[in-house]
């Protein structure tokens, strides 16, 4: 069964996504990122800005097959394309849509920031995954307040 993880209340969503991708890369996981084209470009640019020690081998789905086969992270606007890529261990959903065809998907991660649209659409996805019978792991990223 698909493991669904919701990381919510991210104070800086983009910084958190970068850390999450670095962690997955360090664990040897291959991540497919489903997003719109502007998010793909933004994330692609951000990943190229990482230091040499933090660099993550990544590419856009439009890259040549040779690059796609070696990239640790693949950014795609096409859900069906991501689903057919071999060796994807984790899919990070950065859209507001519910992905289709979750059969045989090992792990799906949702990162939710503080914007109301982000929270609202995340609630809809959460409800959908619950209706499908998936167990949802919750990770509240609210910064702890000093005592």
Overall strand count: 7
CATH class: Alpha Beta
The CATH topology is given as Rossmann fold
- Overall 3D geometry? globular
Q: Rounded to an integer, what's the Rg over CA atoms? A: 15 Å
Strand content: 15-25%
Give the assembly state of these chains.
single chain
- Number of separate domains: 1
Overall mean confidence score, pLDDT:
91
CATH architectural category: 3-Layer(aba) Sandwich
- SSE succession: EHEHEHEHEEHE
Distance between the termini: 40 Å
Query: Can you identify the CATH superfamily?
Result: DNA polymerase III subunit chi
Strand order, main sheet: write it out.
3-4-2-5-6-1-7
Summarize the structure.
The protein has five helices and seven strands, in the order E-H-E-H-E-H-E-H-E-E-H-E. It is of the alpha/beta class and 147 residues long.
Your description of this structure?
The protein has 147 residues and is of the alpha/beta class. It has one domain (3-140): DNA polymerase III subunit chi (Rossmann fold, 3-Layer(aba) Sandwich). 37% of the residues lie in helices and 24% in strands. It has helices spanning 13-26, 37-48, 65-70, 79-84, 116-131; strands at residues 3-10, 31-34, 58-60, 73-76, 90-93, 107-113, 136-140. A seven-stranded parallel sheet has the order 3-4-2-5-6-1-7, sandwiched between helices. Strand 3, helix 3 and strand 4 (73-76) form a beta-alpha-beta unit. It is globular and about 40 Å long. The N and C termini lie far apart (40 Å).
């Amino acid at each position: 069964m698909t493991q669904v993880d919701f990381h919510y209340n991210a104070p800086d969503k983009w910084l958190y996504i970068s850390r999450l991708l670095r962690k997955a890369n360090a664990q040897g996981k291959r991540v497919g990122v489903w997003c719109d084209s502007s998010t793909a470009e933004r994330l692609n640019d951000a990943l190229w800005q990482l230091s040499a020690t933090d660099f993550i081998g990544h590419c856009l789905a439009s890259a040549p097959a040779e690059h796609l086969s070696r990239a640790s992270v693949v950014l795609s606007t096409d859900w069906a394309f991501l689903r057919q890529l071999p060796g994807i261990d984790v899919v990070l959903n950065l859209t507001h849509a519910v992905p289709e065809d979750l059969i045989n998907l090992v792990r799906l991660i949702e990162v939710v920031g503080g914007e109301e649209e982000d929270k609202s659409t995340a609630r809809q996805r959460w409800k959908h995954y619950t209706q499908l019978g998936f167990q949802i792991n919750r990770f509240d990223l609210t910064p702890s307040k000093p005592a």
